[in-house]
Amino acid sequence: MIIVFKQNATVEEKTKLKNQLESKGFQIHASDGVNASLFGVVGDTSALDINLLRVVEGVEKVMRVQEPFKRANRMFHPEDSIIDVAGRKFGGKKLQVIAGPCSVETQEQVTEIAKDVKAAGATLMRGGAFKPRTSPYSFQGLKEKGLDFLKNARAATGLPIVTEIMSPYMVERFVEDVDLIQVGARNMQNFDLLKELGKTNKPILLKRGLAATIEEWLMAAEYIMSEGNENVILCERGIRTFETYTRNTLDVSAIPAVKRLSHLPVVVDPSHAAGMWWMVEPLAKAAVAVGADGLLIEVHNDPEAAWCDGAQSLKPDRFAKLMGDLRGIANIVGREL
Amino acid sequence: MIIVFKQNATVEEKTKLKNQLESKGFQIHASDGVNASLFGVVGDTSALDINLLRVVEGVEKVMRVQEPFKRANRMFHPEDSIIDVAGRKFGGKKLQVIAGPCSVETQEQVTEIAKDVKAAGATLMRGGAFKPRTSPYSFQGLKEKGLDFLKNARAATGLPIVTEIMSPYMVERFVEDVDLIQVGARNMQNFDLLKELGKTNKPILLKRGLAATIEEWLMAAEYIMSEGNENVILCERGIRTFETYTRNTLDVSAIPAVKRLSHLPVVVDPSHAAGMWWMVEPLAKAAVAVGADGLLIEVHNDPEAAWCDGAQSLKPDRFAKLMGDLRGIANIVGREL
Amino acid sequence: MIIVFKQNATVEEKTKLKNQLESKGFQIHASDGVNASLFGVVGDTSALDINLLRVVEGVEKVMRVQEPFKRANRMFHPEDSIIDVAGRKFGGKKLQVIAGPCSVETQEQVTEIAKDVKAAGATLMRGGAFKPRTSPYSFQGLKEKGLDFLKNARAATGLPIVTEIMSPYMVERFVEDVDLIQVGARNMQNFDLLKELGKTNKPILLKRGLAATIEEWLMAAEYIMSEGNENVILCERGIRTFETYTRNTLDVSAIPAVKRLSHLPVVVDPSHAAGMWWMVEPLAKAAVAVGADGLLIEVHNDPEAAWCDGAQSLKPDRFAKLMGDLRGIANIVGREL
Amino acid sequence: MIIVFKQNATVEEKTKLKNQLESKGFQIHASDGVNASLFGVVGDTSALDINLLRVVEGVEKVMRVQEPFKRANRMFHPEDSIIDVAGRKFGGKKLQVIAGPCSVETQEQVTEIAKDVKAAGATLMRGGAFKPRTSPYSFQGLKEKGLDFLKNARAATGLPIVTEIMSPYMVERFVEDVDLIQVGARNMQNFDLLKELGKTNKPILLKRGLAATIEEWLMAAEYIMSEGNENVILCERGIRTFETYTRNTLDVSAIPAVKRLSHLPVVVDPSHAAGMWWMVEPLAKAAVAVGADGLLIEVHNDPEAAWCDGAQSLKPDRFAKLMGDLRGIANIVGREL
């Protein structure tokens, strides 16, 4: 951490701060220039609050040198983490594909789609039971009943279940019934929920917030990991930009960035990013080409009649065809699917 | 709502959609142009899911004409709402000023600051007991003990308490002890929390999300109101932009915009927007000049020793001086403080 | 175009506007609902100024139904445009790869790199002679001398030249010497320059502005095309987002979006988007996978000694290896390279 | 400037870089920590290209300590600059108000409005002769004839002329006829135009780019100043954010930020930021309250018939009334108007 002093900072101010930091176990390397004078603070600065330093008399600004995340940081964990979700391994050579409808509607619907996506090569299934909707007047999900339908579909196909949690009240039930618990973009900084999930040992799929930086996303992972649960899989699902033609802008550069900064696996959700089914296919290909560890794709057998987000769902036959292309691209970039 | 058809949409597709919408009670006004053919959908479209229509065969795009919020909408409630918080009225001629430390630290600290800000003219006090921090390694607040300190400070000064809630588990306790329950920017779309608060009758201070549009913010208010609690006060606290010199960018234009779209009162938090105490004063003046119904200002008696966000806290004497200037500006724009 | 009236708009106001628009040759389809009353304006509205209508007494808001661009619009030109640059065809089955250094430094440097990239399969070469730099104190390019070096390199390799223009003063010289004239991101809305280039018949490579929407980008293309020059190739080079780890965020979804909205070819510059050489490779693969018509890649034989942007330059051997992978991905998505 | 090394950087790599920088006259202060090792580079680093250092073998990242602008920097010029525009002084105690129509339409129109705004207290007049429009099919301005009309209006009222330049071809004519030459937001990084204007001694009104940071804006000022022309007045006119209700988001915090970083005067254009006349008034008040050195306000005597941007123009009587309120606020914040 670098502390830059104001031009008129006094020797007393600097000495006071130096003593304070040294008493906390940090080493100080001072450097005086013509226009700027600064301290290099050496030690584990991740718990040092940058805002507390900015207010110190004489300090102009404070800059971090190291990332503020520790358990998620590749520096302290150079090998890729492999997260096991009911036997499916995220982060290794093989890519995992999670597919299914935006929301669970009926037992028939979810079981049928689960069979279709399994036949096409998907290795896990998704389906929303609790739905975070912008409007309180939109369909909010089948809730507990939706979980039951998912369990039956799992029994019928063997595909592990991925579904979103919205409230700490539901943690116990999800731990019991769900294989990979999704935290949605709008809850990425719902810190109380993250902490509760950190106390379980279930794999967590942590979606990136709509306007979150990569650092904030990794700090959200750190919230879960700091409570003891290191089974975190990241999910890029598009960020908000000025572009309104697409629902969100898929940030493919986040994939190589995250893989350099962290050891955690990262998958891509092209469906929410695009918001339009015809764009899901090229984005899915781009995601595999750029090095994602897996995909999360919405598939519906009757998109026009879907209760939610039909516009961005692929039909099972298009999904099957897409899987073929993805397999080819995966091979070229040294992966399997 | 306007539905624009594709150039190659068939008569059958249009007829099918027309019948479907009419069966739901909407009227359809069709209009055919050279390059575009469209439907005007007449009726209460707030519960109509725009994404369900986008996926219909033949549809090119769907555009809303009316805002999707109803209870928060000034169209259906032309007069300003006045929200009563323990006798302090938000939304009328008189501005309300909420002041206090970022976080509650000790009983002495919070009581002393409460006395100082009351003497300077503040009408409510604030102080964080539960703190949403980007890092799990930063101070997370005194929690329940912090609430006790706030209650004692209220007993000593008579100032109503404003403090942030982070979890649905705490709703009962907050309803008991707090006068104005704050929902922070990171929880603006924590829909489960909003619904729980909607079932109470406590006034809610709803902060705007870091990258939220005004429409999303009002839809978050709608979540609370749709459950029956119409006591919502909005709080602009800066939005994320590319500018890194300030912590966030205070969006003063949101004030006249919200007041035109909605009947709810809106206050401004210049402290979080600025992130630097010397910028709080000009921003507070701008907020009053632009027409805000109140302010939320961080004041600390010893910012250098603050446990959190001292950099953006005013000392009591600066706050008192600022209040004088704000009073003058309020008078010029036809308000009182 | 849809004109939405205020609730209290009078019959006189509506009749006056109706007559006004009809006298300009538009047809008006009126539609009256409970909460909103509106006009559908039928005809070629691309020249109708939306802001002039917004100010009319009684009007609440105005919404476009059709895109404001015409010559760039696929609706009026359903087939893909193929742009010929000295025999290299952009927009057909075969992808074009433009490679070379960020800035032209010496004759030896540019000729040697041109030979290297040609050997690896590049079909055009790039090199900056006029450099738009954020700081006036940074190297501004070799200017005219740089153009001479590029011409000599072309003579030595046969590769057509792509280089950036910054001033209308240079149009004549560029038309004489350059094969594909690049307009940089910062000049995307330098309308006077666009108009001058529209009066030539040279192919133009139009980079997307740092914070431009797809519609603004296509409107910039329209500026060139409306003057008569329809030889426009678009170039996605990353947009500004909150993410600071990468220089810019490559918007891969812009590729399928542009190809749906417009008939113009679109290429991708992964080097400027990433700002770091190790990220150029995965982004280039993603660009081909998503359907780009070509790539613009920075290659330098001695990045550490480069005068500009060495950090994002590939060395020739890495570039050659990358070309192999790109070829494989191109085949999978039905293209050639 | 701080150079952070990779964990595996070798002594040779560090020594090589140290020698290289010392040979350019910089002093190096090295600091070695457990997880990071770094160099503090002491000297005038404003001409040091950060991207050239990032590519050096062993370097992880490079961080600036000092701002990259020099002539615009308050550190080297602690007093406020006062810029004289035909006798009107920008940057002193008195605020300057520039008012007039968006575009010059007829001699009668511009002269009449000039008289109106003068009567209301405006001290300079504005009017667009060359108009940068998003669409090539929109009205592009009266061009030279517009300049003639402005000159006649100046002769009739004595108000100095402020108008926008779009092309380097027009510099000579503008220097001859215009009192304050405006560079529009879209040309903020049209570096060739900035350099040409830097060779004159005319005052320049430099608008902030739509998505520009404060640092980029000051670097654009630096482009003009580095050529010798230090008569630069900055103009905040709203930045692009996700909010679509307003045309742009007026960044009032940029005013205190710029005044702390730079000695240059800064004025505010609330009309372009708002895009709606009823919002211009509260934003203008906020601008004065926050400390702006002046305002740029669109006034039209017949907004409904305006050729451009009528929606955001005030009528002369509203403008006159607004001026009264602004005077009151100016007095409270220690200024005059």
Automatic annotation (TrEMBL), chains A, B, C, D:
Q: Which keywords belong to this entry?
A: Transferase
- Please state the Enzyme Commission number of this protein: 2.5.1.54
Residue ranges of domain DAHP synthase ferredoxin-like in the record: 1-67
Which PANTHER family does the protein's record reference? Answer: PHOSPHO-2-DEHYDRO-3-DEOXYHEPTONATE ALDOLASE (PTHR43018)
User: Top-down, what is the taxonomic lineage of the species of origin?
Assistant: Bacteria, Bacillati, Bacillota, Negativicutes, Acidaminococcales
What name does this protein carry?
3-deoxy-7-phosphoheptulonate synthase
Q: Where is the signal peptide?
A: none
Q: Which GO terms describe its molecular function?
A: 3-deoxy-7-phosphoheptulonate synthase activity; aldehyde-lyase activity
